[in-house]
Amino acid sequence: MAKKRKSQHHKQVRKLLKPKEGIKIIEKELQDFLMEITQNKQPMAFSKVELKMIYALYIRLSGPFAEPGQHISDKELKTMGRLLQKRLSEPLEKIDGRWYSFRELNLLFCYLQVMDVNRELPERRFTLWKYLGGAANIELSKEDFIDLIFVHLYKTITACSDVRNKVYTLALTSAHIAKKNPIFHFNTRMGVYHAVNKKIKIDGKYRLAYRMIKPRLNGPLFLNYDVGEFKEFHDTDKDKIPVYIQAHALKRMKERLDLLDDEALNYNLFYNLYHFKHFYDVRSYILIPYHLFDVKVGYFFCRIVDNCFVIRTFLFITHFSTPEGSDLKDICGLGKNDVPYWKIDRLSTFMNVDAEQYPKLSAMFEEAGCGDLFKLHNEEFSVEAMQTANLDGLREYVLKGKMEVEEPVEN
Question: Do 38 and 183 lie in a common domain?
């Protein structure tokens, strides 16, 4: 009978390239990248000393490997590894009108360092500077790259985590490097924590809610809020209370923010609940604003129940129960059923509308406090399943029996 193979979760199985092989690969990548951004037809030739320096400075990221004591399947490790590497090649930083991925910034940094080292060789430095053109003015430091790695890791685990299923963590560790082959190489170690849920009695019925567990690089954070901030809503002797979110709120968030995929929804869920600076009090509900690209697009409606901070639902900013939605109703008379009928209760509607085409409607939304929605029109979303709204019909509907904001008259 064949012996069962032992799990390889905790072993580094990826073999590092020999310096000679690695130098050739990075040289080709750097030359191709430089030719693309400079429009030069001839590749830049580097000396052996310069190539060794570029090879040593280039930051490498491998893994992930399971944290000791964690039982994580090979499939999960491979999936996370593919995602980490994929995201390294995705647009990350916009400089002078062009988006650069982490890999590209990594290559550019190495080139700039070589250029800086050649200060004592002004002719060579000038050749390198001239070849690079406008990109030579970009300033990058090693600290910038370390920060970008941590941001990259955090965004990846946050996007993959789901409070209804699993929450992931990643730790960054230095890989073992041979003295004869000094390079910047980091391993990632992955941890996984399963969802926690409970049934909370709300308005006489038990509702399923999930514990808000925030992914972090070195272990999860079970989200708690200071009671002092919400003392007017609840009387308790506790200093902190746990945060839970109902399944209904997650469902509504997906419906209203219909252009965001699951990864984007997860990331923004954690970000908004962890970084909010103020809240609103509406009919004994605690309203926490939800921002997307610094634009307020909705609210979490919350209550404190049984010593738990419970996120009951999510409402788009135009909903009649929000402060802006209430103002919108007063301004143009849109009723409870009008907002969903005209499809102005979801993100996709405003991505498909040019505010200049509907000046009166945009003025109406501006007066109600939700005009910033139109600013998202220029953001890059995946709009393959975009829903179209009949704003021409909405305009006629408002004109027939509702009040409409007049356009300003120039004197």
Answer: yes
